[in-house]
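Slide 14.
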Amino acid sequence: MPESPVTDANVASVENGTLPGPRVAIVTGGSRGIGRQSAERLAADGYAVVVNYAGSEKEADSVVEAITADGGRAIAVQADVADETAVAALFDAATETYGGVDVVVHAAGRMVLSPLAELELDALDAMHRINIRGTFVVGREAARRLRKGGAIINFSSSVLGLALPGYTGYAASKGAVEAITLILARELRGRDITVNAVAPGPTATALFLDGKDEETIARMAAQPPLERLGTPEDIAEVVAFLAGPGHWVNGQILRANGGII
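Slide 15: predicted structure.
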């Protein structure tokens, strides 16, 4: 196992008489897309990373292999983010392996697109279970467990401002995520824990590209002044910033969308 990088936090922990160690991040939905890129970026920044996945064990293992091959620390842990018992076990695994949790990147999500009049309620319920209940369950566990100086990073979407047809159910779920984020930031007063959300615009992930024809993708890529789709790497940069030592951005929704709105 590689040695922990020398950081200001490690130096401070030695001076305070505690054992040094890496900051620890849990990344939900960490097996693919933005979650995977965020996990790999945080690992490159020196974090020990717990890669959470729902069903993609092989993909999660590949993230761990990529991180450890580069000298980082990572484990993969399966958990349904909407199941409070499974989420508690996820935090237990992080604590047992690395000694605690400092950062939670809640990237797990579900998207079903349909006009409101045609959206099946079972699909709506399944989407809201992951996006709303999952954010609540993960946030609740994080609020109970994060160490001083920690950060909770949720995921909303710039589609709230764009108000695109077909996104009613998804946008509604992300509106709830923003409400949870802003209120939790204030509920954690005095804990030295920040709570923010990243709201990506159109980003070239499987979740976004699935079911869209080339014309639709090209039209959406042309919307921002930067005239391209975002990439998972773009969003991971924002995640790394919010997880980092700056720690003065709190209770905010960062619309990482290339200037689309």
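Speaker note: The domain at 22-203+232-254 is CATH 3.40.50.720 (Rossmann fold).
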